[in-house]
Amino acid sequence: MRNILIIDDEINICTLLSKFLGKHGFKVDTTMSGATALKMMKEKTFDLVLCDYRLKDTDGAQLLQDILQINPRTIVIIITGYTDVRVAVDMVKNGAYDYLSKPLYPDEILNLVHKAFAHMDAEREREESMPMRTVNGSSAGSAAVVESSDGEPDGEMLDKSHKYVYGESNGAKELFRQIKLVAPTDYSVIIFGETGTGKESVAHLIHHHSKRHNQPFVALDCGSLSKELAASELFGHEKGSFTGAINTKIGAFEQAHGGTLFLDEVANLSYDIQVALLRVIQEKVIRRVGSLKEIPIDVRIIVASNEKLSESVAKGRFREDLFHRFNEFTIYIPPLRERVEDLPLFVDAFMRQVERELQKNCGKITNEVWECFSRYNWPGNIRELKNVIRRACLLTPEHEDITLSTLPLEMKESFAQQPYEEDHQVNMSGELISITNENDLKTVALQAEYNKIINVLKEVKYNKTKAAQLLNIDRKTLYNKLRLLNINY
């Protein structure tokens, strides 16, 4: 159960918020004094604090600093009057998660609390999503091995990036060489890589090693934004600017002022938003939705996409002028299948993380599982690997070895069917064995079907489940066609 602390010198607000949030499954404590709140926080861990800006014994700015000093992970939401909105915006820049303007609306409070906890969970998941390796090679959490130009790990980089490790393969070394070069600059960066390769983690590393590392890092997933919502999330809006805008909202650009703004899946933004983004980058000012006032911003922009933005430009889905604004430097993250030598590093670190999560000791991974890992295509990359390790550790009794039976079905099928090209009787020449008449329309259709199935099977490494999905048929139909076309396994 999440612990929430409410700090307000109005007893009615404390009582109402306590009852309302308590009904929604939260454990709530209240106090009317800043000094008492700090004492309570030293005795008990609170996940979230709702704090009035104006208290009798202190002000919100000082209390925010004191709260974050006690527990930097505590989420702080400021409650403020209409005249204090500018102050609240400054507090958000100094570490508060968000603010609420009086009068308070229950649904708005609940939505913001849920959003804050979702953000906290996502941050913790991100921090745990990448394994760590120390300089001497022992695993210890999730950090990055960065090599200097002479091939030795860079101590300064390691000190600040102890949460990340991306491996020791040639691809990883080149990746971090580029991060090390571009981080101290103010270049805009495009990060290109498949889903699950760790694009946001790379963006964090660039920020951590930049001159802006003490300023905010704000991440926004553009893939989940509608055209209407994107403008509000990026640039903010004024109270009453549209239906449902019951409070003024500061957007991602304002939140990231002085720091770094990371836009994930930027190719999904609509054309109108791309035009607005181009203007912001050129003029270095933003206008909130519903306002004519221009607000200066100083933000370094890092964008990411799982497809090449140049290809999106060629297809007419992304503005070429905006692409060139972003494309001051491009970083490519290689997929896991291109750096199989890093697998032991990731597996070891993920197992340690999962052992802490489950509070159990997992045994060793069998040679058969290692062989399966090395052959598998890893379409979900590092994210998929972590999920596979979590599943395997959960299904394996404590201290017992992890076996093939604990792996997902698609992995076991893929492993059982390899390598077909070398030692199975599939006619890979592209000719149907049963062809008798090249002019027969039915035979020609069968030949085309045969070629398509063979090509798809090759593409998915002979995983029949995935092949059926790509062919838009069920597995039973696929098996029938394999028998009909004499594709034997």
Automatic annotation (TrEMBL):
Residues 3-117 form the Response regulatory domain. Residues 165-394 form the Sigma-54 factor interaction domain. One of its GO terms (molecular function) is sequence-specific DNA binding. The keyword Membrane does not apply. InterPro entries: AAA+_ATPase, AAA_lid_NorR, CheY-like_superfamily, Homeodomain-like_sf, HTH_Fis, P-loop_NTPase, Sig_transdc_resp-reg_receiver, Sigma_54_int. Keywords: ATP-binding, DNA-binding, Nucleotide-binding, Phosphoprotein, Transcription, Transcription regulation. Residues 135-148 have a biased composition (Low complexity). The modification 4-aspartylphosphate is found at D52. It comes from the Bacteria. One of its GO terms (biological process) is regulation of DNA-templated transcription. SUPFAM superfamilies: CheY-like, Homeodomain-like, P-loop containing nucleoside triphosphate hydrolases. Residues 129-158 are annotated as: Disordered. This is Two-component system, NtrC family, response regulator HydG.
